[in-house]
Design a protein that fits this description.
- By secondary structure, this protein is of the alpha/beta class.
- It contains nine helices and nine strands.
- Strand 4 (about 85-95), helix 3 (about 100-110) and strand 5 form a beta-alpha-beta unit.
- The longest helix has 18 residues, at about 250-265.
- It is globular.
Length: about 300
């Protein structure tokens, strides 16, 4: 039996649907999905099995024009993910077409992914007419020599099986990189922190998602099979703490309940989740916070 294995980088602008596609491919919720841009900070990997192939997805942060240190570190992580992968899939939104951002990524691919095999996935195809799709496909392929083009809807699952099959057949021959039952190589503490951060992002909307980070401080396995998880939410200002706690602590309580429910479903057992909010004015400039998120602090320079 010939086995294949390798890394596939999903790249694209923020909100192009990379995390939704990853979850659809892997069949489990690994990379957090929200309607907000820049929610994927670390290069979370999901592992999908297709026939005799093991596909390891590197879900890169969205590529955008960086303004702050955190932004720069995220963009650097995305390009590193693309350069290190065996295959690259550029994801664009059908209804938005070849945007300035998508063009900037294509320019970056020519520069940084030389010799890499790159496929194009046009996502959200249910939002446009067939003739517009055809025109967009031609326009994109004139802009870059994609090896293959896939028309998909990550949300509804259309075309995703074809893409996964092609990736499985195109990866290099070699032994599998992870045990069969392992779906993500991120430590569970980090996945747990990401789940809580997703709930905060959804709950707080515009207010301060990019000014906060979540870390799992303690993870205790209990004799009854349950787990006690202690997490700290770092915010940059005192005022943020009030927003996070909410009136009579309602906001933090709702976030805690939602995160606990999802963790229990993910782990398949009872979870006791304790959240604490701490104010750390300079957390966006602390190297330690970056390594907790799987980013390189120096990339932000």
């Amino acid at each position: 039996m010939t086995t294949r294995a390798g890394f596939v980088a999903l790249i694209g602008e923020p909100n192009a649907g990379k995390s939704t596609l990853l979850n659809r491919m892997v069949g489990a919720k690994v990379s957090i999905v929200t309607h907000k841009v820049q929610t994927t900070r670390a290069r979370i990997r999901g592992v999908a099995l297709e026939g005799d192939s093991q596909i390891v997805f590197v879900d890169t942060p969205g590529l955008f024009r960086p303004r702050r240190r955190l932004d720069r570190a995220m963009v650097a992580a995305a390009w590193t993910g693309a350069a290190d992968a065996d295959l690259v899939v550029l994801l664009i939104e059908a209804h938005r077409g070849l945007t300035h951002g998508a063009q900037a990524i294509i320019d970056g691919l020519s520069e940084r992914a030389e010799g890499r095999r790159v496929a194009l996935a046009i996502n959200k195809i249910d939002r446009v007419k067939a003739e517009d799709l055809l025109a967009l496909t031609q326009k994109m392929n004139a802009a870059y020599p994609f090896e293959k083009t896939f028309l998909i809807s990550a949300e509804k699952g259309h075309g995703v099986d074809d893409l996964r099959k092609w990736l499985a057949e195109t990866l290099p021959e070699g032994p599998w990189l992870y045990p069969e039952d392992q779906i993500a190589d991120l430590p569970m503490r980090m996945i747990a922190a990401e789940m809580t951060r997703e709930k905060l992002t959804l709950r707080l909307h515009q207010e301060l998602p990019y000014q906060l980070t979540v870390e799992t401080e303690n993870w205790e396995e209990r004799q009854d099979g349950s787990a006690r998880i202690d997490q700290v939410i770092y915010v940059a200002r005192d005022g943020h703490k009030g927003i996070l706690l909410g009136k009579k602590g309602e906001t933090i309580k709702a976030v805690s309940q939602a995160a606990r429910a999802e963790l229990e479903e993910f782990l398949g057992r009872k979870v006791h989740l304790f959240l604490q909010v701490k104010v750390r004015p300079g957390w966006l400039d602390e190297a330690e916070r970056y390594s907790e998120m799987g980013l390189d602090f120096r990339d932000g320079n």
